[in-house]
Amino acid sequence: MGPQQDRSMANGTASRKETKVVHYRECQRNHAASIGGYAVDGCREFMASGAEGTAAALLCAACQCHRSFHRREVEADCDCSSTTSG
């Protein structure tokens, strides 16, 4: 147990683990940077080349760029358990 978990258990509250969904969108790699220009390849969304957990999973099947060149979009999980009366 880490220090954060020890404190939450001492207070009598259970720590809630939130999950976030991450999508990798259009490729932003500048292919013309070496000649001082700007040109992107038009890849609209990251598609893994291999199975999760392998090195190929970090390469895009469409443009062969690393996943870090693709725009990262994080969707936060909504806690819809609380209700409001109005």
In helices, the fraction of residues equals under 10%
Lateral strand order in the biggest sheet: 1-2
Derived structural class: mainly beta
Portion in strands: 15-25%
- Describe the sheet with the most strands: 2 strands, antiparallel
Average of per-residue pLDDT values? 81
Low-confidence stretches: 1-9
The helix/strand series, from N terminus to C terminus, equals HEE
Write structural notes for this entry:
Its main location: cytoplasm. Keywords: Cytoplasm, Metal-binding, Zinc, Zinc-finger. Residues 24-73 form the ZF-HD dimerization-type domain. It comes from Dichanthelium oligosanthes. One of its GO terms (cellular component) is cytoplasm. The chain has 86 residues and is mainly beta. It has a domain at 21-75. Helix content is 9%, strand content 17%. Strands 1-2 form a two-stranded antiparallel ribbon. It is globular. The N and C termini lie far apart (42 Å). The model is unreliable at 1-9 (pLDDT under 50).
How would you summarize the topology of this molecule?
Elements: H1 3-10, E1 20-27, E2 70-76
Short descriptors:
metal-binding; two-stranded antiparallel ribbon; globular; disordered N terminus; 9% helix; zinc-finger; DNA-binding transcription factor activity; 86 residues; mainly beta; 1 helix
